[in-house]
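Quick review question:
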């Protein structure tokens, strides 16, 4: 049996398009993120080569694990649903009943919703974006252009 393991980056979160995002380096088995190692802040230049280690980000770890679980659950439940309905004969005892079909569809919808939630929370708030920019020495004026409303109400210091 071929065993594929190593390390790779997963859990893209705190993404400000054109500026930066955070990913966590994981040890993986068959590209399934298992053990988080460190979180890295990358410049959003499309290369994923320029990055700086930042403090460990549990949000990125949770994103990677939840997306993996939701993805597997969606695929497995959809295959089960197809086998129990489309591919099963009418007299097959393994054929799904209407309530089972509704339950399976509801579960798939729930997992799609969970995956969508990880996309919604992948954008940082104003304070978090400013903190990340400060950690890597990114100019705060550039970050403020992504948050015009929040930066307009920011208290001034004299």
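Suggested answer, residue by residue:
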């Amino acid at each position: 049996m071929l065993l594929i393991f190593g390390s790779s980056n997963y859990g893209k979160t705190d993404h400000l398009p054109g500026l930066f995002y955070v990913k966590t380096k994981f040890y993986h088995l068959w590209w399934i993120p298992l053990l988080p190692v460190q979180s890295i802040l990358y410049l959003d230049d499309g290369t994923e080569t320029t990055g700086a280690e930042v403090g460990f980000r549990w949000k990125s770890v949770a994103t990677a694990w939840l997306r993996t679980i939701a993805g597997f659950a969606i695929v497995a439940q959809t295959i089960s649903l197809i086998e129990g309905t489309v591919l099963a004969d009418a007299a097959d005892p393994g054929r799904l009943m209407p309530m089972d079909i509704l339950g399976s569809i509801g579960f798939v919808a729930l997992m799609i919703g969970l995956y969508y939630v990880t996309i919604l929370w992948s954008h940082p708030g104003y304070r978090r974006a400013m903190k990340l920019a400060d950690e890597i020495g990114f100019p705060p004026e550039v970050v403020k252009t992504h948050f015009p409303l929040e930066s307009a109400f920011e208290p001034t210091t004299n």
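Why it works: DSSP finds five helices and four strands in the chain. The mean pLDDT is 87.
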